[in-house]
Design goal:
The complex is a heterodimer of chains A (about 90) and B (about 140). With about 90 residues, chain A is mainly α. Chain A is about 60% helix and about 0% strand. In chain A, about 20% of the residues are buried. In chain B, strand 7 (about 115-125) and strand 8 form a beta hairpin. The chains are: A mainly alpha (about 90), B alpha+beta (about 140). Chain B: Pfam families: ApeP-like.
């Protein structure tokens, strides 16, 4: 089930995203906050970014590119990008 | 047939006795396909069977040959790639000496110079091994 397939509110998308990021990257859900750094919090190396792209595509049906990540520092940036791509 | 075993080393950096692919049968941006005959003197054969490492290497070299072929088609020189990680590995069966296996690889995602690919090898239609590879292509 994707955010695009059903009428999910933006808040529901954020909460679902926090859930699957927390589970996949084994990070405390409470650390996935808009002000926190995405790379540092999830402890991402360059290969992990591919997993992140796959995860977002599988869960939210949103395709991200390498260019997209140039603008992302925090989870806030990341959520705004996803929101823009979802058209919410 | 896109590349025969006689020409395969023009497209991949591997050299004997570590060449684990014979012929590149097909290569598009969506699908790679190769075959490989398991000989008794293969360095990754043990007790008459090609080991899991040989099957994984065969998938990786199928990627190398296909990327090399596609690079040349695009009028560029083949680039060197490295296995970044191996995931979702499933081993079902090992092929015996004298068998010829078929390998199919699907590039699923690209992020910059990192490719995620899903590969599977088969013997007479039966799946032998499947895995996901992340391949980092150098400069």
């Amino acid at each position: 089930m994707h955010a695009n397939d059903v009428k999910m509110s933006w808040e529901e998308v954020v909460e679902e995203t926090r859930d699957f990021l927390s589970e996949e990257f084994e990070v405390d859900r409470g650390l996935i906050l808009p002000e926190n750094n995405l790379k540092d919090t999830l402890d991402l190396d360059s290969l992990d970014y591919v997993d992140l792209v796959v995860l977002i595509e599988e869960n939210l049906n949103v395709k991200l590119t390498g260019e997209d990540f140039k603008e992302i520092a925090t989870f806030g940036d990341f959520f705004q990008l996803v929101r823009k791509k979802l058209g919410l | 047939m896109l590349i025969t075993r006689e020409a395969i080393t023009q497209y991949i950096p591997h050299r004997a006795p570590f060449v684990m692919i014979d012929n590149l049968i097909n290569a598009t941006r969506e699908r790679f396909e190769s075959d490989f005959a398991i000989l008794s003197d293969n360095v990754l054969v043990e007790n008459g069977f090609l080991q899991e490492t040989g099957l994984i290497e065969n998938i990786a070299q199928t990627c190398a040959a296909a990327f090399g072929y596609l690079d040349r088609e695009a009028a560029g020189a083949p680039k060197i790639g490295f296995i970044g990680s191996i995931g979702r590995l499933e081993v079902f069966e090992l092929p015996p000496v004298n068998a010829t296996i078929q390998t199919v690889v699907f590039p699923t995602h690209q992020l910059g110079n990192i490719y995620l690919l899903k590969g599977e090898s088969f013997l007479e239609g039966r799946i032998l091994l499947g895995c996901e590879l992340k391949i980092v292509v150098a400069g």
